[in-house]
């Protein structure tokens, strides 16, 4: 990963060209009025933020101020993908925040991308807003790291420009978290193509994506020396004449679809394979720590959004002739959530900085994802409780946050698998599964 400072000029340029640039001379305190809601709990002058992180924070908060809670409520009800938010991010160059400058990106680090994802979620868009751009931010890291020059030119530039959207197909119905047992197969046809057969589940944004990054077996499990071998990674057109895409009705984040994919005799050109045949698992693992950090940042944003709404309501709502927030039974859980979220935030940005500096193992990224998703869930639950009956009404938004707060606890990896990782890799306890 390039240093966060590299490519700074590109983001700076995009920022100046965007409608945000005119605010750059305002003191940080004043910029809170741009979108005070977003910056209520994590001010732009956060002492541990670098200059580039502050700029990202302010720029993203400004874009998000166009999309109030009512927008996200409407999207949740209509189940429509937020194409306008995606287009705004593409227009101002933010989809390429981690992509090398050569392909239109800004070549910033995960430390900046985490600020961006936290802010987009914190604005009230939650996991819906974050997921609508998430895959495009870091999903193509295997291409950046292992793709040929021709593939990078062909794939990265349209992704950054927002003209192509990507989805990510790893999870399968029969194998779940046991990725090494994936059953979908790609078989060479002897004519420069592979024929793909199998299924995927939970593939998010497959309803609107033109492209898919997909991991499948090219050598059956019983014919490889190690289970991590024999899986191959492809980035290719999502050919809807061969891939049946069925939307899954789900608890939250309704505007960003998740799907079951079923494919039969799907011809994929070998030119769309990334890296060597059989090396796919290694390549997919490469981006996983960064993805966990970004999901953690998204969860943090959701938690802060819930806390913001809860505090506001607790100040305004008067029962027994005083604001309910004057009762410690309301105030203390919210204050405790702020402490939990801030603690998690320190871990998220520590993990991000370490990642950018080349730290490769996953204990901090996993710990960050664990802490942030649990803290966010607790904050959302308390926000609903602080609203009393109105917490159950869609109009007050916190019920939507609570539904969305389940997601970072489950995906892309569960709490149990994180604890398995820490138990085994950090504490050197026997492998439990
Ligand atoms: C809304 C949503 C969007 C998603 N988007 C995508 C996407 O775009 N692309 C994609 O590829 N995937 C996606 N996923 C899939 C997600 O990554 C998986 O759901 C997740 O990895 C868990 O896999 P599973 O659901 O099969 O759970 P399972 O593997 O069936 O596990 C079920 C439960 O058992 C526990 N468990 C299993 N084994 C162990 C063990 N050894 N020790 C302790 N506990 C264990 C797990 O922790 C979990 O709680 C998405 C999921 C959701 C819900």
How would you describe this structure to a colleague?
Belongs to the acyl-CoA dehydrogenase family. Residues 278-427 form the Acyl-CoA dehydrogenase/oxidase C-terminal domain. It comes from Cladophialophora psammophila CBS 110553. Residues 50-162 form the Acyl-CoA dehydrogenase/oxidase N-terminal domain. Its cofactor is FAD. The protein is an alpha+beta fold and 433 residues long. The protein folds into 3 domains: 8-161, Butyryl-Coa Dehydrogenase, subunit A, domain 1 (Orthogonal Bundle); 166-283, Butyryl-CoA Dehydrogenase, subunit A, domain 2 (Beta Barrel), CATH 2.40.110; 285-426, Butyryl-CoA Dehydrogenase, subunit A, domain 3 (Up-down Bundle). Helices cover 48% and strands 13% of the residues. It has helices at 8-17, 28-31, 51-64, 69-78, 83-91, 110-138, 141-146, 149-161, 280-286, 288-316, 328-356, 363-386, 398-405, 407-410, 415-426; strands at residues 166-169, 185-188, 193-204, 211-217, 231-237, 243-247, 258-269, 273-274, 318-319, 322-323. The strands form 3 sheets. A 4-stranded mixed beta sheet has the order 1-4-5-8. Strands 2-3-7-6 form a 4-stranded antiparallel beta sheet, with no helix packed on it. Strand 2 (185-188) and strand 3 form a beta hairpin. Helix 3 (51-64) crosses helix 6 and helix 10 runs antiparallel to helix 11. The longest helix has 29 residues, at 110-138. It is globular and about 80 Å long. It binds flavin-adenine dinucleotide. Flavin-adenine dinucleotide (FAD) binds next to strand 1, strand 3, helix 14 and helix 15.
């Amino acid at each position: 990963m390039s240093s966060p400072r590299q490519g700074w000029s590109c983001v700076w340029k995009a920022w100046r060209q965007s409608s945000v640039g005119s605010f750059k001379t305002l003191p940080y305190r004043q910029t809170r009025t741009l979108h005070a809601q977003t910056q209520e709990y994590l001010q732009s002058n956060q002492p541990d933020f670098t200059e580039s992180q502050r700029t990202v924070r302010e720029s993203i908060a400004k874009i998000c101020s166009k999309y109030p809670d009512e927008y996200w409520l409407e999207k949740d009800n209509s189940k429509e993908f937020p194409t306008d938010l995606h287009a705004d991010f593409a227009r101002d160059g933010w989809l390429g925040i981690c992509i090398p400058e050569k392909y239109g990106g800004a070549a910033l680090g995960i430390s900046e991308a985490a600020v961006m994802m936290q802010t987009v979620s914190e604005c009230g868009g939650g996991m819906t807003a974050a997921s609508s751009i998430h895959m495009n931010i870091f999903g193509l890291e295997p291409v950046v790291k292992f793709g040929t020059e021709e593939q990078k030119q062909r794939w990265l530039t349209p992704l950054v420009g927002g003209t192509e959207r990507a989805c990510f197909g790893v999870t399968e119905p029969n194998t779940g978290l046991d990725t090494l047992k994936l059953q979908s197969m790609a078989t060479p046809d002897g004519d420069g193509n592979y024929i793909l057969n199998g299924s995927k589940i939970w593939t998010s944004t497959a309803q609107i994506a033109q492209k898919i990054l997909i991991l499948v077996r090219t050598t059956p499990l019983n014919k490889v020396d190690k289970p991590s071998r024999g899986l191959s990674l492809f980035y290719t057109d999502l050919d809807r004449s061969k891939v049946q895409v069925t939307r899954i009705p789900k608890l939250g984040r309704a505007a960003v679809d998740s799907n079951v994919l079923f494919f039969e005799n799907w011809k994929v050109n070998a030119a769309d394979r990334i890296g060597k045949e059989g090396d796919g698992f290694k390549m997919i693992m490469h981006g996983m720590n960064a993805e966990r950090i970004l999901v953690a940042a998204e969860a943090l944003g959701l938690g802060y959004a819930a806390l913001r709404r809860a505090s506001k309501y607790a100040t305004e709502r008067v029962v027994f002739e005083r604001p309910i927030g004057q009762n410690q039974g309301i105030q203390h859980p919210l204050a405790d959530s702020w402490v939990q979220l801030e603690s998690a935030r320190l871990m998220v940005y520590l993990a991000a900085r370490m990642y950018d500096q080349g730290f490769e193992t996953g204990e901090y990224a996993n710990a960050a994802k664990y802490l942030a998703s649990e803290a966010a869930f607790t904050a959302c639950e308390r926000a609903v409780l602080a609203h009393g009956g109105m917490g159950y009404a869609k109009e007050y938004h916190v019920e939507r946050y609570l539904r969305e707060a389940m997601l970072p606890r489950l995906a892309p990896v569960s709490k149990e698998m994180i604890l398995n990782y820490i138990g085994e890799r950090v504490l050197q306890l026997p492998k439990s599964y």
